[in-house]
Specification:
The protein is built from seven helices and no strands. It is an all-alpha fold and about 150 residues long. The chain is globular, with a radius of gyration of 15 Å. Belongs to the globin family.
């Protein structure tokens, strides 16, 4: 029984859309974080080593920002590979959500911010169809993360 609301066709087109942006995982992951830190400077406060960085250029060059960008894209890639297997999908999302809720204490609204920036980047680089086919995936991810946060008492 699947908790996923995506059809097989939607899963396929979402994977196709994701592949385009995942080819350059480090650069695109970095671009997403830099945009988040620039447009939502409060998100930087969670990352002690990014706090002092004000220029986008400086962030882009930072090994820590690049490393985390790559990590974020790797985690999403893992989820995308398991969109048709809700047990495996939840096996990835659940520990990630728990860690961000309990250890890192990241406000869950930041997941939506990151997802929206990924969708923006997809649209800019590959057009509206690409964005549209990935939108349901970001909604799935954010919904599941929010549920885990609720279970953790947020």
């Amino acid at each position: 029984s699947s908790t996923m609301s995506l059809s097989e066709a939607e899963v396929q087109s979402a994977r196709g859309a994701w592949e385009k942006i995942y080819v350059d995982a480090e650069d695109n992951g970095t671009a997403v974080l830099v945009r988040m830190f620039t447009e939502h400077p409060d998100t930087k406060s969670y990352f002690t080593h990014f706090k002092g960085m004000d220029s986008a250029e400086e962030m882009k060059q930072s090994d820590q920002v690049r490393g985390h960008g790559k990590k974020v894209f790797g985690a999403i890639n893992n989820m995308v590979q398991h969109l048709d297997n809700s047990e495996a999908f939840l096996g990835i999302v659940t520990p990630l959500g728990k860690k961000h809720a309990t250890q890192l204490k990241i406000d869950p609204k930041n997941f939506r911010i990151i997802c929206d920036i990924i969708l923006q980047l997809m649209e800019e680089k590959f057009g509206g169809d690409c964005k549209a086919s990935f939108e349901k995936v970001t909604n799935e991810i954010c919904t599941h993360l929010n549920n885990i946060y609720k279970e953790e008492g947020w």
